[in-house]
Amino acid sequence: MAAVSITTEFLKRPLMTGAVTASSRRLARAMTQHIGLGEARLVVELGPGTGVFTDAVLRQLAPDARLVAIELNPDLAERLAASRDDKRLTVVHGAAAELADVAAGPVDAVVSGLPWTVMPTADRNRTLDAVAAALAPSGRFTTFAYLHAAWTPPGRHLAAGLRERFGTVDRSPVVWPNLPPAFVHRARAPKNLRLHRHAGSGPPA
Ligand SMILES: C[S@@+](CC[C@H](N)C(=O)[O-])C[C@H]1O[C@@H](n2cnc3c(N)ncnc32)[C@H](O)[C@@H]1O
């Protein structure tokens, strides 16, 4: 199989990839801390790429727990599935917004490497809705943001979207040993917006 990296994929599909290089192990550690992975039964990863966060999740997951990793790029999905020999891991080639179709049951944690700031707004909203709807009430969600992009309109839209959909949202310290430096949004207490939207009453205050 030809070499596949985030850098080569960025050159081929810049908007889908959204990063010039894979995240660092330090960012992977920050992404997978404080989300109860040791007790989790079902974890979903969105946009695993070459698997930096995948490996960090698997290191902490119980022997009988499951990780479903959803990757839109077929080459990256194929490479990840072929390069990890772990029966807890299922790699799905698909879109993150479809996570309810591939991860049956309440999800204990969602770890996202998605390139939110280059995603169209409608996709970003649909995917955030799908994450909040899939999580168990005690579920946790982590996603990272590049420091330099946090104050752009898409970066602010992501932060507002998290506050709209989760009762508690906080941020990790900046992870400087990452290219570029990044921090982690940590969200919990998903709100049941779907019920409110269907009832036409908007999100709860
Ligand atoms: C910024 S890279 C991060 C890769 C890896 N998690 C890391 O941190 O090194 C974004 C990844 O998300 C994938 N991706 C982009 N849009 C997606 C979508 N809608 N659903 C699933 N994966 C997606 C890209 O193909 C890419 O692998």
From TrEMBL:
<feature type="domain" description="Methyltransferase">
    <location>
        <begin position="43"/>
        <end position="139"/>
    </location>
</feature>
<dbReference type="GO" id="GO:0032259">
    <property type="term" value="P:methylation"/>
</dbReference>
<keyword id="KW-0808">Transferase</keyword>
<dbReference type="InterPro" id="IPR041698">
    <property type="entry name" value="Methyltransf_25"/>
</dbReference>
<protein>
    <submittedName>
        <fullName>Methyltransferase domain-containing protein</fullName>
    </submittedName>
</protein>
<dbReference type="InterPro" id="IPR029063">
    <property type="entry name" value="SAM-dependent_MTases_sf"/>
</dbReference>
<dbReference type="Pfam" id="PF13649">
    <property type="entry name" value="Methyltransf_25"/>
</dbReference>
<keyword id="KW-0489">Methyltransferase</keyword>
<dbReference type="GO" id="GO:0008168">
    <property type="term" value="F:methyltransferase activity"/>
</dbReference>
